[in-house]
Each structure stands twice: as C-alpha cells, then as structure tokens.
Automatic annotation (TrEMBL):
<dbReference type="Pfam" id="PF00496">
    <property type="entry name" value="SBP_bac_5"/>
</dbReference>
<dbReference type="GO" id="GO:1904680">
    <property type="term" value="F:peptide transmembrane transporter activity"/>
</dbReference>
<dbReference type="InterPro" id="IPR030678">
    <property type="entry name" value="Peptide/Ni-bd"/>
</dbReference>
<feature type="domain" description="Solute-binding protein family 5">
    <location>
        <begin position="74"/>
        <end position="418"/>
    </location>
</feature>
<dbReference type="GO" id="GO:0015833">
    <property type="term" value="P:peptide transport"/>
</dbReference>
<dbReference type="InterPro" id="IPR039424">
    <property type="entry name" value="SBP_5"/>
</dbReference>
<dbReference type="GO" id="GO:0043190">
    <property type="term" value="C:ATP-binding cassette (ABC) transporter complex"/>
</dbReference>
<dbReference type="GO" id="GO:0030288">
    <property type="term" value="C:outer membrane-bounded periplasmic space"/>
</dbReference>
<keyword id="KW-0813">Transport</keyword>
<feature type="signal peptide">
    <location>
        <begin position="1"/>
        <end position="22"/>
    </location>
</feature>
<protein>
    <submittedName>
        <fullName>ABC transporter substrate-binding protein</fullName>
    </submittedName>
</protein>
<keyword id="KW-0732">Signal</keyword>
<comment type="similarity">
    <text>Belongs to the bacterial solute-binding protein 5 family.</text>
</comment>
<dbReference type="InterPro" id="IPR000914">
    <property type="entry name" value="SBP_5_dom"/>
</dbReference>
Length: 466
C-alpha cells in the first residue's frame, strides 16, 4: 500500500513561522474516496503558473519533479534516480526509466528539457522563476541522462528543484507543445500517483488513482479537494462527515477535535506570513521611516497569542528560525506606538494617511482575523488601512501585472535564504516589487558561493540593506 499523498498539506503565519495543522476523520479504507477541505480553490493547474500552496497540494498528486523530500527533510530521488557534478557548472541527472505520463507519452530526457525550457523562458513569467533562474541551459546527454548548465556554481540546486518544484514539475512535451497554457491549466497531465478527472471552479477538484504509477498504485482510489473559505464551515464539515481532511485547523480547536475518529496531525513548517509594501508608487510607503513605523505599530506577539494560541515562532525577517543562515541575534521590531507616531511625524505624516490593504481570505490559517487585527493596530497610530479581500486568481493576476497597491498580506516558504529572498526581493520580481541593486549583488554572490560559512556571512550583510 502506498501513501495517499506525496507531501504534507501545508500551512503558514505573520512574521511568524508556524506548524501545519491538519485534522483527519477516521481512516480511509483501500479503494475508497477521501475528501479534503482547503481554504481556497486552485489557482492554475499549470505547474509553471501556479502560485499558492493549496494548488500545490493538488499538483503534487498529479505531477512529479526530479527530486523530492523525505520525512526527515532530506532530498531524495523522484523522477531522477541519481545525480552528480561533472564540473562546478554542471549538474547531471540520471532519470527513472519506464515512466509514462497519464496520456501515454514517455518520460525521458527530452521531456525534462522541454519542461524546463518552458519554465525558464522569462517571457513565460513563472511565479517561482527566480528559484531556478541560475540554470542557463538544459542539455540532453542520452535518452535518460540530462545535464543542467548553470551560469555560476549553484550550491542550492537540489533544494531549488524541490522548493521551486512548481515550475520544476515535468509536463508531457508533445501535449505542452500542442496546447496553450490555459488548456494545460484546465486539463493537467503528469506522471504522478493520481490522474485528473474534473475541476468545477469553486466546487471541487476530482482525482483518480493512477494504476500505472511508477511508485505503485495509491491505496485510495479517488481524492476530492473542496474549497471552503470559512474555517468554522470546514470544521463543521469534518465533524458531520462531509469531509475527511481539513487543512489549517485553528489552534483553539485542536483539543476538542482530537480523539475518537478524528486525529490532529501537526507538521513542522517553514512557511511564514508577513506584510509586503508596494514602494513603486508615489505613496507614503516609499519612505523607509513609514515602513519602520508600520513595523513598530503592530503588536505581533499579541496577535500570535490571541489568534494562534501562541503557536509558531516569531521571526526577525522573512526566514524561518530553523532556516540556513538564520542568526539568533537578529531581533524583530519592538511594539512601540510612540516610536511609530514619531517616525510618521518625522516623515511628514503626523496625522497618518489612508492606504489599501489587500489579502486573500481562507488562504492561510486565520488570515482574515490577522489582517483585521493588523489594521486595528495601524489605526491606533493614524493609518487607515482599507481592507480588500481578493480571490486567488485575481491576486495572482494583479501580482503578475504589478498592480498590487499599498500593503499586502502574502506568505512564503523556504529554509535557504536564497530561495526566500531571491523571489521576494530581487529587482524585477512581482512578489513584493522591491528593488535594491546592493541586495541584488549580494544575492547573486550568495547563490554562487559554495563555502557554507562564506554564504552565511553574505546573508548577514543582506540584513543591513534598506
């Protein structure tokens, strides 16, 4: 019997790294159906275009990457069986033989090259492009061997292929060549343990077991993903038997749910919540003092205690405390409305200002409550944050078009700073719109430095960039 899911279902939280919480009702029998409730619907079934983790939970059942991660956090083979470095600018992967896509196409080196050529095209605008942008070319050596050529030494290659595995998931080359992105997004075809059946927008996504899966046929015959935005509704569906698994269980419900046929599963997560500021427009957010004031104005510890029952770990920046190069001497902003008001006055806003504050609803655990609490703290120093909740598809579209104004409440994940800060902070990305040539240069240096301690020193210098 094989596992139903290839990955843990993920969760996240604000300037705070938090465990993923999941409740399961009963034990699904072999050959049965399980129903999974998530906060939002899928965004795009095209792996190179998707940009949220609820979608990833679905895609990882449909597609495979070259590598994956085991329960101990170690990178292990998936569609690649082994790898080596013929030289410092080459990663060579030996591929699994005898694997077929759901439509009957063969998986081979040409399929790997075609998938990466597609995702690496800058005009394609893959959301996680920066995590694999150091790959210069993908070359076919033979039918089951492929070389990845990099511009500079790429020490995080394997981790990048795992953590950036949305664009690194392999699509069938003939199918991709004959269909546009919209078609691939509507009818995904991969090599994964489950095949796509149907997607009824805002209702459900249905998958069925792949009897020819290279890892063995899954024990569960059918998996249904249902988007249910309201947390209380998800919990009610679980207790009534309407769903079998609920993602993002509120901490205060853990004790009451755990027991009998229901089991709470807690998984260590490297995901984070944070605030993102649009500094590209002529608004108060262009002034560093205003951004500092916002940080001082929000009592993150109070939010963590009140809304998350103290779960999670507050971080000093967008990097989990267990992440590579995290420095425990870094301290988060102290809560000080007085400092916030003084900084606002110094920046020329003694009476505050109005600013858009956008978020999604149901995307993360307690996201709406956290956004509203944050806006409440900002109001105490004179900042009126006008909250607007966007659907996942709209969020993705306006982000890609750099149309996200004001303050935003996104999330991210990753243990290596290169895989967090490069997609969030390098010039040209559309996750935060931030641009700083000094930071760009340091990130380039960190990406190509092999020595671990030298990399840590580079990332410490990043902390001082403004």
């Amino acid at each position: 019997m094989t596992s139903t899911f290839k990955r843990c279902l993920l969760a996240a939280t604000l300037g705070v790294s938090i465990p993923a919480l999941m409740a399961t009702a009963g034990i699904a029998q072999e050959g049965s159906t399980i129903i999974v409730a998530q906060g939002v619907d899928a965004y795009s079934m095209d792996p190179a275009k998707h940009s949220n983790f609820p979608t990833a939970n679905i895609l990882f059942q449909l597609y495979d990457g070259l590598v994956t991660q085991d329960e101990n956090g170690e990178i292990v083979p998936a569609l690649a069986t082994e790898w080596s470095n013929p030289d410092e600018l080459t990663w060579r992967f030996k591929l699994r033989q005898g694997v077929k896509f759901h439509n009957g196409e063969d998986f081979n080196a040409e399929a790997v090259k075609a998938s990466f050529d597609r995702a690496l095209n800058p005009d394609f605008k893959a959301p996680y492009f920066s995590r694999i942008s150091h790959i210069k070319a993908v070359e076919v050596v033979d039918e089951y061997t492929v070389d990845f050529k990099t511009e500079k030494p790429f020490p995080t290659m394997l981790l990048s292929l795992y953590e950036a595995s949305f664009p690194a998931l392999i699509v069938p080359p003939k199918y991709a060549a004959e269909n546009d992105g919209a078609s691939i997004a509507a009818k995904p075809i991969g090599t994964g343990p489950y095949k796509f059946v149907e997607w009824l927008k805002d209702e459900h996504v249905v998958l069925e077991a792949n009897p020819d899966y290279w890892g063995g046929k899954p024990a569960i015959e059918k998996v249904v993903f249902r988007p249910i935005a309201e947390t209380r509704t998800r919990i009610a569906e679980l207790t009534s038997g309407g769903v079998d698994i609920v993602v993002d269980v509120p901490p205060e419900d853990m004790a009451s749910l755990d027991g009998g046929d229901t089991k709470i599963v807690t998984v260590s997560s490297d995901s984070l919540y944070f605030l993102s500021f649009d500094t590209t427009r002529d608004t108060p957010l262009k002034d560093k003092r205003v951004r500092q004031a916002i940080n001082h104005a929000i009592d993150v510890d109070a939010i963590q205690q009140a809304l998350l029952n103290g779960m999670g770990t507050r971080t000093a920046l967008t990097l989990p405390t267990n992440g590579f190069a995290y420095d425990s001497s870094w301290q988060p902003y102290e809560y000080s409305p007085e400092k916030a008001k003084a900084l606002l006055a110094e920046a020329g806003y003694p009476d505050g200002f109005e600013i858009p504050f956008i978020s999604r609803k149901g995307r993360y655990m307690k996201d709406a409550e956290i956004v509203e609490a944050t806006a409440g703290f900002l109001s105490k120093v004179g900042i009126k944050a006008n909250i607007q909740y966007l659907e996942a598809g709209v969020w993705g579209q306006i982000s890609e078009q750099k149309g996200r104004e004001g303050i935003a409440f996104p999330g991210w994940s990753g243990r290596d700073p290169q895989l967090v800060w490069a997609p969030l902070l390098t010039t040209g990305q559309y996750q935060s719109y931030y641009s700083n040539p000094e930071l760009d240069e340091l990130l380039q240096a960190g990406a190509s430095t092999i020595d671990t301690e030298a990399r840590k020193e580079i990332y410490k210098r990043l902390r001082t960039c403004q």
